[in-house]
Amino acid sequence: MKKVYVIGIGLIGGSMALDIKTHYESSLVIGIDANDTHLDTAIELGIIDKKATFDIISEADLVIVAVPVDVSLVILPNILDKVGEHTLVIDVGSTKLPICEAVEKHPYRRNFLATHPIAGTEFSGPSAAIKGLFKGKTNIICEVEKTTFALQEIGMELFKKLGMRIRYMDPKAHDKHIAYVSHLSHISSFMLGKTVVEIEKDERDIFDMAGSGFESTVRLAKSSPAMWTPIFKQNKKHVINSLDEYIVNLTHFKKLLEEENYEEVFNEMQNTNRIKEILNRKT
After folding, report:
1. CA torsion, points 112, 119, 24, 43, in degrees to nearest 10?
2. Which of 98, 168, 191, 197 lies at 20 to 30 Å from 115 by C-alpha?
3. pTM, whole model, 2 decimals?
4. pLDDT tens digits, residue range 259-282?
5. What confidence tens digit (pLDDT) does each residue in 116-159 have?
6. Whole-angstrom Cα distance, residue 169 to residue 142?
7. b/e map of 81-102 (b: 16 or more CB within 10 Å)?
8. Strand pairing partners for 32?
């Protein structure tokens, strides 16, 4: 893998670039980003070797598309128009069905591998990039059979070097499930943060009382709105369904408190404690 182009030098794109430079020492990592300051910062931090434009992307061995999902829909077909016959193109977006549909009939669809590495933090930009971010993390791959086998192998070798676990999933199922375990989590965090910020206008000392539980719960509220708004838009149907179910559970819990039914409050929490067993099975 000699020439790697990373489009979008943020947390995911930048972290992937760092790992590629570690595991493919002879590779040249080239950055493309709408924000030229991001590119300059990435060069200073050693994340990329140089910056470029789309004009010379045809010489790439690997292209990583790590931009907001609405931008991916626009640029991905154009990237496939420009790449060489043996170039692997992957995207790392949090929605998969719209992306897969956007390139479904493209003559170079076979060069594209739809992926979602489930890794990250609440931070963004090149300075958020971390070596080893993907080690032990799950990478969801959709419609692998539509990618030519030789390029599949290149992608799998890369993911193995990065230490990722591979799971294969239909893009529709991916978008449905990710709405519950990722998208709903972010909305909950944003709205809890909003609730407390609005109270803080009148209660200035409230954040002095905030402990680690609050901080961990609202951590995701520091995430980039520019990245998450398009995700919610693209996955609107499944996000709304997950919100409906979440609101039902919140309303039910509120009703138990209003009725002073603390035995059932205890049972609700105790029954939910089994999530510890589910999460432990992942490790």
Report:
1. 100
2. 191
3. 0.89
4. 999 999 999 999 998 887 766 765
5. 999 988 888 999 999 999 999 999 999 999 999 999 999 999 99
6. 5
7. ebbeeebbbbbbbbbbbbbbeb
8. 7
